Amino acid sequence: MRNWMTPIIYTLFALALLYVGIQLFTNTSSFLSSIAMMIGIAVLVYGAIYFLFLRNRGFGGGGNRTEMKKYKQAVKQSKQKYKQPAPTIKKSSVAKPKVKPSPLGKKTRKRSSAPHLRVIEGNKDKHKNRATF
Fold first, then answer.
1. Which of 23, 55, 99, 103 could bridge 31 with an S-S bond, Cβ 3.0-4.6 Å?
2. What is the mean pLDDT of residues 102-106?
3. Region labeled Disordered — which residues (predicted)?
């Protein structure tokens, strides 16, 4: 089926290009105005379709609003967790002596578990004894 359709399609494309070329050289002003009109109509149709259907779909064309809210919240938490302090710019060229904090005043920081990690409880009694194999 494709073998006999291919030459017909190429012929139609060639005739269309020939017609466009003839119109461009014989009736340039109406050709350019019709091209501009077609582009304008295409932009209007695309804009209408976008604002009516595609705008409310969410991120990447899929998902719904609740998933998008959860994603934005996760991004916000990640940025807060991994944000780095802004580098400070020295205003004076004179170096100030650094004051070392005393080791007694140093507070030990308690390790907290990461919020994105959790322990999955399992049945720990049923471990296989691999020495018997």
1. 23
2. 58
3. 60-133
DSSP string, 74-129: HHHHHHHHH--PPPP--S-SSPPPPPPPPTTSPPPPPP---TT-------GGG---
Nearest one of 43, 19, 49 to 31, comparing CA atoms? 19
Pairwise CA distance, residues 59 & 72, whole Å: 10
Kindly state the tokens that stand for 132: 């018997």
Token representation of residue 92: 């004076």
Give the separation between CA 67 and CA 59, rounded to whole angstroms: 9
Q: What pLDDT is stored for residue 54 in this prediction?
A: 80
Per DSSP, 52 falls in state I
Which residues have C-beta within 8 Å of that of residue 54, sequence separation ≥ 6? Answer: 61
Token readout for 32 is 């350019």
pLDDT (average), residues 51-58: 74
Locate 60 and state its tokens. Answer: 């990447």
Structure tokens that stand for 96 in this block: 């100030």
Nearest to 28 by CA among 15, 87, 36: 36
